[in-house]
From TrEMBL:
InterPro entries: Luciferase-like_dom, Luciferase-like_sf, SsuD_RutA_monooxygenase. SUPFAM superfamilies: Bacterial luciferase-like. The lineage of its organism: Bacteria, Bacillati, Actinomycetota, Actinomycetes, Frankiales. It comes from Parafrankia irregularis. The keyword Cell membrane does not apply. This is Alkanesulfonate monooxygenase.
């Protein structure tokens, strides 16, 4: 990576960044799990409105076999906000593509062009089987590829069309219900070979969990190479997700991080929280979780602020790698990823609502201020140089976190 003292912008740097958060339906967290299968409506309304007021651009509405329906929640987000863009997580096994296209276009019309879809092929055989899907993992990505093609045709074809594919067949459909604009952005994620092939060739957005900078850069190059080989003139936007842990100073943030991870470990050792994501007794099936655990086994800390102990504590369940430090250090770390090409950054905390508010107050403005400086001058500002975090000479995790 470029040294933090350099003012030169790397050629890979994205000129823009938009922020994403995940919408939470109730106060339950990994730090303090609250047994509930319901929606705390007052909490949800407050959460979503804070995202809007804090300057987030998108919110992800996740999907699971025992969670609330992502389409219904996305529609609620659209009506509770004026600007926030709902990202609907959809599994192709749960919705026929023409119906999903209709639902998404309806959401897009109701929100005047704010809808985005994140397609989840499915990383756990056990979780897929809970809703009757027994297709092997690689074949699930083949289905996703056909699903994406049919979404786009349903939104753009002006005459009826028929289709006889490997997974879907129908006659004389259309024209379908149109979105508000020309189309709806399609996101895909995953770390398997099949995920890269489908996402690089067909997705508008490719999503990653937080990884060390050099590893992420090589993955971005891989996505772009596949896009080029597919004949695309554009490249997928890169979305990367973190769970920041911040405090007034780096030292206080590391102390907070160690306190958090102890609580997370207790929660996951109880065996119930997010159990559905863990795959099998031998560990997660999805490559993203396997990579997270491999990074955690090699080192606790990478680059300026990336911390993997949280991923280890969860057994690689979902997006769980943290960025630790003061707001300035974490903002500088986010900019490191922007320098690698990320233009969508998801930041969601372990203390959900409180963290979302703090990020909006203390991190988002710093990143946007730096990007405005870059746009005006063509050079980096001083934020990255002034806040090296774990890149500082003599940094020691034990010392930074205090005596434990």
């Amino acid at each position: 990576m470029t040294e933090p003292s350099s003012t030169e912008l790397p050629a890979t740097a994205s000129p823009q960044v938009e922020f994403i958060s995940l919408s939470h339906l109730n106060p339950s967290t990994e730090l303090n799990p609250v047994p509930s299968r319901g929606i705390d409506l007052a909490y949800f309304r407050r959460y979503v409105r804070w995202l809007e007021e804090s300057g987030y651009d998108y919110t992800l509405l996740p999907y699971g076999s025992n969670s609330a329906d992502s389409f219904v929640i996305a529609s609620a987000v659209g009506q509770l906000t004026e600007r926030l863009r709902p990202i609907v997580a959809v599994r192709p096994n749960t919705a026929f593509p023409l119906v999903a296209a209709q639902q998404l276009a309806t959401l897009d019309q109701l929100t005047e062009g704010r809808a985005v879809v994140h397609i989840i092929s499915g990383g756990s055989d056990a979780e897929q089987a809970r809703q009757g899907d027994y297709l092997p993992k690689d074949r699930r990505y083949d289905r996703t590829s056909e699903f994406i093609d049919l979404l786009r045709r349903a939104w753009t074809e002006t005459s009826p069309f028929s289709h006889s594919g490997e997974f879907y067949k129908f006659d004389d459909f259309g024209p379908g219900f149109a979105p508000y604009g020309k189309t709806i952005p399609i996101s895909i994620g995953g770390q398997s070979d099949a995920a890269f092939e489908v996402g690089g060739a067909k997705a508008d957005i490719f999503s990653f969990w937080g990884e060390p900078l050099a590893d992420l850069r090589s993955e971005i190059d891989r996505v772009n190479g596949i896009a080029a080989a597919a004949g695309r003139a554009d490249r997928p936007r890169i979305w990367v997700t973190f769970r920041p842990i911040i405090a007034q100073t780096d030292k206080l943030a590391w102390e907070k991080a160690h306190d958090y991870v102890a609580k997370i470990e207790r929660t996951f050792k109880g065996g119930n929280y997010h159990k559905r994501y863990l795959g099998t007794a031998t560990g997660p099936q999805n490559v993203g979780s396997q990579r997270a655990l491999e990074f955690a086994a090699q080192s606790d800390v990478y680059d300026r602020a990336l911390w993997t102990r949280t991923a280890a504590a969860t057994g690689g369940a979902g997006a769980s790698t943290a960025l630790v430090g003061s707001p300035e250090t974490v903002a500088a770390a986010i900019l490191d990823y922007v320098d690698q090409g990320a233009s969508l950054v998801s930041i969601r905390g372990y203390d959900t609502l409180a963290d979302a508010i703090d990020y909006g107050r203390y991190i988002v403005p710093l990143v946007r201020q730096e990007l405005a400086h870059r746009a005006a001058t063509g050079q980096r500002g001083t934020l990255q140089a002034d806040h090296p975090g774990a890149l500082a000479p003599g940094f020691d995790l034990a010392t930074s976190a205090g005596s434990r």
